[in-house]
């Protein structure tokens, strides 16, 4: 440290710019804002904190390795890790995904969670496609919905007032799918600059949409609440608007959803979609406590039964995700389930040696005849609950033969059944069984309703269930013995729900029953001689008939004798029945509350007997996070050649580092911690790609560069998997992929590296350089020139001018096609997405934008963002303007010797505007409708604040009376940032100067053209730290002068 408190540390060859970035944002400071840490101490702080997750945290070897890889600038973790490791907050992840559910509760939960994440230093991504469209009905209020774009504005405003880890504002990524009815409004959302300034937005496009664009086809916009088609448009019309707005503003980008799904390593956890797959609240979920309704399992950890095995949910258990359109999945055997159309169900593909070949298929893609899995609970058939075997038997008889009242149950049965039920009265015919009236009533079997109730299914013990089934089959069951078909136990009923409940009860005991239409009269082989024909019949056959005899059986000696005889005399081996059901149809079934659960490891559960997937969406899964890091490729060159061994070693150490970060991280929400430790995603990427190409003298826009990019990323991916496999052996495999042999479900990504590349003094990500030389201006007004060191070396080394010109190109000198192809080349060996901006010159056309988007889709990119130089009206720096334009003469400015005299009496207007220092009272006096005088007064503020506020008013007044246009004054003051923004109306007041600009703008003095100019200004284009022009790289707005980044 020098005397000023600035760190002086050149051991890491840090540039002046890197030191300044570290001082401003990363190094520890005391209460007075004085830097108290050197860069080297930062790297030791981070290394020790991350290494605390190692098997032996006291081993200084790994700590030193972590330190050295950062100190050499060979690898740097994402900014939250550098900022927060070893500090009180300790939140180290960079990006989080939050679901946005179609309910007020869900929306504001996401808003709250966003604030906590931004406060901890992370950024957030959302897909707003679940929200009902603008104007859609809201039944709870009899009102109409305001639509996703309006709610995005709320998220944007909230971001303004929450600083990331006290260092910067948060960043958001917003997606709306191309089939949402509000997609046109979404695309135009950033046309008015200053709106959604804290969002990058992208349209989620499927292959079907892109093919419709290619074929000039039509495209349906569907209400996500009902899935009904609201409007049909020409696909090219929608694509044209996407490209036009991207040409004008740089937004929206595009995300290709089917590509994300195809490469999703966690496809068994669900598809990457806009919705959250779920089941309805009346779904019966089998647990260690017996079957329970999904809605009753919320807010607590649940031990579930899956194929006779105990598995646990997360601490949260089930949770409501909103109201959504649901479907009823019906099978030919009688099993059914109500679920969302995108909920995965386990389908049987065929037989393989040792078992069945299965795959997860969303319900909406199941076809009639598909076989789906049932749960096999033969190894676990006992659970606690109400009732005994005898009580169950009596209630079973009652369901088949009696009537129930509050005080007594009347059984119409023969005496032997009464004895089995515990009644000694031997008379034949109807009789009152007093002991079971209250029991039947407590189970919901009141007068007029003696069928199976949900209470009976969800609150009784396994003994009660066995007794109930025995009594019910004694009363209504029959046995059929056929030489060809074998022995079968049958139960006929006119009520399908009753048979389905019996079917579920049997399945929980490991017995499969199948429901068929019955053309015969009920009671055959039993007691009922006068009942009307039953419409359905439950049939238990094959080996399941034997299981029924063992686990349930008949009390009726005649029936049990017939069953025992049939099973013993049947000459053939009992046929084994697979635990599968056959899909019949999927029919819409209204809108209902739906629920979600996470089951780590198994990722599935028993829903009405079917094997279904636990819910989730990609990427990331809701409440998932990813910690990132980047390898500096500029340091992976030795003597003009790629140092492949250094890449391999650096990659393996970086993967170990990032895996440790998962365990030492302090997460902002318990649900995030659970999900991250389930999937263990890491994102190792690169920076300094342009620097590597410069050293190798390879042009960015060449096939050689594309081939090298594929090879570099392939080597990193391979080495990353080697290390992840080694970590899986010593620490255990990723819980979400237990059979993968890997510690991490994903390993590579290419994320924005704005600030990291400033610290490492290298080029950003896989971007070409923005400029080879430019002037940087820092906060204190000092300027210094920057020249790319590799460019200088080439010039001073006597390189051929032709070679230098061919190799050392800036981003705007490279055709958009090469930008896209480079992104695609790296994407081939990257698990997650590649962040890159397709930079275009100001002369690019809308057609050029469309060509880039279509090429990105055809070359299998997962997403794309474009930025045309100068597309934002506030941008004042154009790197590639011709020199002749830069040399235009400076217009002469006439000097005003004295301002106009102030009239003795003036009239005007006064506005009250809130600021963080108190209310600002802004008075504007005018002459003939023209503002000439401004008074600014602060209420309840200190003397210093009142002094500079009054000074601003005097200077504005002087300027107005000297002929300066009002819009020029507003332009200078609008958007100036402060430390404590405040809400006001539909926006945020950033500071006292911004409040004055707001007041002047709202008083109506500007004509329409001037007002339009003011509203087009955006602080997005001006760096809030140094005031320099911002540009876009790696899909992120950042400052090339001081390193400030919105990502």
Topology (elements, then pairings):
Blueprint: H1 16-25, H2 39-51, H3 60-71, E1 75-77, H4 79-84, E2 95-97, H5 104-120, E3 123-127, E4 137-138, E5 143-144, H6 148-160, E6 163-164, E7 168-169, E8 172-177, H7 183-187, E9 199-205, H8 207-214, E10 218-222, E11 229-234, H9 235-249, E12 253-256, H10 257-262, E13 279-280, E14 284-287, E15 290-293, E16 303-306, E17 309-312, E18 319-331, E19 336-339, E20 344-352, E21 355-362, E22 371-373, H11 389-401, E23 402-404, E24 409-413, H12 415-420, E25 429-433, H13 437-442, H14 454-459, H15 462-476, E26 477-482, E27 486-493, H16 496-508, E28 514-517, E29 536-541, H17 543-551, H18 557-569, E30 580-596, E31 604-607, E32 610-613, E33 625-632, E34 637-638, E35 641-642, H19 644-664, H20 670-679, E36 682-687, H21 689-696, H22 703-731, H23 754-760, E37 773-777, E38 783-787, H24 789-796, H25 801-807, H26 816-827, E39 837-840, H27 846-858, E40 863-868, H28 883-886, E41 907-915, E42 918-927, E43 930-938, H29 943-961, H30 966-973, E44 982-984, E45 987-989, H31 992-1002, H32 1008-1016, E46 1031-1033, E47 1036-1038
Parallel strand pairs: 2-3, 3-8, 8-9, 9-12, 33-36, 39-40
Antiparallel strand pairs: 1-33, 2-33, 4-5, 6-7, 10-11, 12-40, 13-30, 14-15, 16-17, 18-19, 18-30, 20-21, 20-22, 22-30, 23-24, 24-25, 26-27, 27-29, 28-29, 31-32, 34-35, 37-38, 41-42, 42-43, 44-45, 46-47
Helix pairs in contact: 1-23, 2-3, 5-6, 9-27, 11-15, 19-22, 22-26, 26-27, 30-31
